[in-house]
């Protein structure tokens, strides 16, 4: 068994690795979509408030628990309270499910990066290109397996020599690429067939201006819940990842500063992703091109890049490379969480554990990648949406398990154990827990209620109750 002698080299290494986990594909396609759908600046204001309150509470809890116990999810919750080991098992199962499909999405992004690098950008802008690709029985499997293999290799190299080393390179490059594309998006200008001129600046103003048209109590609640659910995607909370990463943090590191830096980096990239995507889509497609999920990244954006002319190929290359970096750092953290838990459970070393899990997830990734062709079927989820294999895994892990885990963890920390358990770790080394009072109120009173509402809403139970 590998003991926790493997650590991040210091605060910078931890912050970049944690930010790498937090900054994932959800920041690049889900955040801009939600901002465009949920009132622009209104969504941004609500999201920022939630990041500084709920996000801070959940992120602080995970990281502090990890460092205090020096264990991953299962062992950490068992040490906190033996009867609550089941919560650790539930938390462990989230990355187990996510890992089945995350490399598949990474493979999709890698495919598009290759398309743009080889000068075939115009083909990616065709209406049926994405559908033809994911329904192929070969291509998505190959790219998914390639992405999975790279992820496994980095985790195999260890905490400092693999995860931290890659994060220290990728995260600064990712930030630079996002800033470059965001600035370029603001300079765009296009005249449509009717003579209407749209500019990137208009798209930016659409993005940051609060839209209150048609706002009702029910609508506001939906925006609030959308913003709350984005926190799970954005901050990698309630899935055991930050508990695992927290267990690698040295005692002398100031967790207060680290948490604030992860919040700032993750939220900053999400906001910049909106500046990068929304103005560009607005200029060439208006608000109609801002579809949900994959259709934004793999359908709308290639059309936008194609409309830019020769410059669009360059922008497309930069965008999909930045997307690869964001997805890879997140995929690494998901696999690392599984590896760390398995090492503790089975008392095996890192290399052997990583190799076994790599083989398992290479097979799982192939099956999920074939979910749109060989293993295709269609079911209706409890929330009313239709789903295939990938969608089912995503729904169970993100819409059911993560809100439930967040709810149970707030009850455990706030009422069964004590908020002092986390506060003491935040003050370890003589550091001041600056938002201590807010943390106590959030973890005991506010967060449990909101987590319960989010769980009921995301599973479709809320609409059934008030039907």
Automatic annotation (TrEMBL):
**Record field: transmembrane:** 12-29, 41-65, 86-109, 129-156, 168-187, 227-248, 269-287, 307-335, 355-375, 395-416, 437-457
- Give me the Gene Ontology terms describing cellular component: membrane
Which keywords does UniProt give here?
A: Membrane, Transmembrane, Transmembrane helix, Transport
Topology with regard to the membrane?
Answer: Multi-pass membrane protein
**Localization (cell):** Membrane
Family matches, as PANTHER family: TRANSPORTER
Q: What's this protein's name?
A: Sodium-dependent transporter
Superkingdom of origin organism: Bacteria
> Would the keyword Membrane turn up in this protein's UniProt record?
yes
Source organism of the structure: Hominenteromicrobium mulieris
State a single Pfam family of this protein.
SNF
């Amino acid at each position: 068994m590998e003991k926790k002698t493997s650590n991040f080299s210091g605060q910078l290494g931890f912050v970049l690795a944690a930010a790498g986990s937090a900054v994932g594909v959800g920041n690049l396609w889900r955040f801009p979509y939600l901002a465009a759908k949920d009132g622009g600046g209104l969504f941004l204001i609500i999201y920022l408030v939630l990041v500084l309150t709920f996000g801070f509470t959940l992120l602080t809890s995970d990281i502090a628990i990890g460092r205090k116990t020096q264990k991953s999810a299962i062992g950490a919750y068992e040490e906190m309270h033996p009867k609550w080991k089941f919560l650790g098992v539930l938390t462990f199962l989230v990355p187990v499910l996510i890992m089945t499909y995350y490399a598949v999405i990474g493979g999709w992004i890698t495919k598009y990066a290759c398309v743009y690098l080889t000068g075939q950008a115009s083909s990616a802008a065709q209406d049926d290109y994405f559908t033809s690709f994911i329904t192929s029985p070969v291509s998505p499997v190959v790219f998914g397996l390639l992405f999975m293999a790279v992820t496994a290799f980095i985790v195999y190299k260890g905490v400092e020599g693999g995860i931290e080393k890659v994060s220290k390179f990728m995260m600064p490059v990712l930030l630079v690429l996002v800033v470059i594309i965001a600035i370029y998006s603001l300079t765009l200008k296009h005249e449509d067939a009717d003579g209407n001129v749209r500019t990137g600046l208009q798209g930016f103003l659409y993005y940051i201006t609060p839209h209150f048209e048609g706002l009702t109590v029910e609508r506001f609640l939906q925006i609030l819940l959308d913003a709350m659910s984005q926190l799970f995607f954005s901050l990698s909370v309630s899935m055991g990842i930050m508990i695992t990463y927290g267990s690698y943090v040295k005692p002398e590191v100031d967790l207060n500063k680290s948490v604030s830096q992860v919040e700032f980096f993750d939220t900053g990239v999400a906001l910049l992703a909106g500046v990068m995507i929304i103005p560009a889509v607005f200029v060439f497609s208006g608000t109609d091109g801002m579809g949900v999920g994959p259709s934004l990244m793999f359908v709308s954006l290639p059309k936008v890049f194609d409309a830019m002319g020769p410059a669009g190929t360059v922008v497309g290359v930069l965008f999909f490379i930045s997307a690869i970096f964001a997805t890879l750092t997140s995929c690494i953290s998901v696999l690392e969480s599984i590896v760390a838990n398995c090492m503790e459970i089975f008392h095996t070393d890192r290399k052997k554990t990583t190799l076994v899990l790599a083989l398992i997830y290479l097979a799982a990734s192939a099956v999920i990648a074939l979910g749109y062709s060989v293993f295709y079927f269609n079911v209706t989820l409890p929330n009313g949406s239709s789903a295939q294999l990938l969608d089912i895994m995503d729904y169970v892990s993100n819409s059911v398990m993560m809100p439930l885990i967040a709810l149970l963890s707030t009850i455990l920390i706030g009422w069964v154990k004590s908020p002092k358990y986390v506060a003491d770790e935040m003050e370890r080394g003589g550091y001041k827990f600056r938002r201590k009072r807010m943390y106590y109120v959030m973890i005991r009173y506010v967060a449990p209620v909101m987590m319960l509402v989010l769980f009921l809403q995301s599973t479709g139970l809320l609409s059934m109750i008030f039907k």
